[in-house]
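Section 5.1 Outputs to date
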Amino acid sequence: MKKALIIIFAALMAALVFSGCARGGKRAQEDLAVEPPAAEEEKEVNESAFVKSTLYFISDEGYVVPVTKLIPWEDGIAAASLRYMTSSPDNIEAAKRMGLVPAIPGGTEFSISIRDGNALVDLKNMPSLEDAKAELDMIRAIVNALTEFPTVTTVTITRGGSSDPLEHGTELPVRQTAYPLNIEESSLSASAGGALATLYFPNSSGALTVPVSRMMSGAPSVYSVAAALIGGSGSRGLMNCFPENTLLLGAAIENGTATVNLSSDFKAVSETEGMYSLAYRTLFLSLEKNFGITRLRIQVNGEDYSPEGTAAPSGVNEAR
């Protein structure tokens, strides 16, 4: 009787987690109901446990994009996460609804061992990819997904036990830390005192939030990161959700709270439904990624500003 109740409870929990409601406006996200990892039919303990994993996919615009999702816990959760990122009919269809495609070719199997913070990943039966960009996107997606786990600092990848380059010449990584994603072309270089900062921009539909790595002229500050985001991105397929002529009047962080003060031109954001939420979201994510903030206040001319009825989301591409 006890065993039956546990199984029924687990089924109810799974149904609740994976049937989340779509959000309103341009921020609506389709459920990423990707094909679940293979599991035994009866589990009395692990079936009712879920873990939030950050998975990586390729957007229709060609960017590597993180998606957070609750997935059922199982032994070998790292390999299970990679299976959610692998092409299969169900995974392709579910990712397509979000404007994404899986990063790993179908049929690929994974063997993973973790020692001293390094995850050694062997890709078995992996088909060839179409070009060098697809190879590099796959490697970045795997490395960044695995380094999200607290026990993994670096990743080494082999293919069928070999460390030889892939078909299009892409080198397999050895003890690689997380990659900066979607690096913008820039004339600045680290040797000239520049440093990379991560900025988040919506894609053209506003359905996804895309991380972009930009080389700054000096060490990133809260002011320089906010100013860079407000200035927009020249990268293909990304939008700027701050109205033209918006000026940054000030930016500071105190006790984990960032306060960003903008000129009155920013109020034009309320003329487009959902645009304030996108502006808040991308600003929060950019400052959280670079400085670890926990709260954001947007002001206009020194007074708190939030259009009535507008939500202020903070999550990045969450799927339920």
